[in-house]
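Need tokens for this chain, all 73 residues.
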Amino acid sequence: MISWHNAPLHSYKGFLYKPEVDEDEEGIRKAWHNIVRRIEPHIVVYTSNHTPYRWMTFEEFKIFVDQMERITA
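Here are the structure tokens for all 73 residues:
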């Protein structure tokens, strides 16, 4: 189950995985997959549409960052 207590701490190429947990009225928790820069951790740079029912793995995070860098370069 998604919880703040088990959120991973991925870091890659100056980006950090900073997910948020959203809980609806029925108690179902879903993840928002936010990616921020290490130097500005309060500003969300990217949000992934990865499944809301589990955290991104480090490999998924790494692939996403690489794809976003290519698209925005």
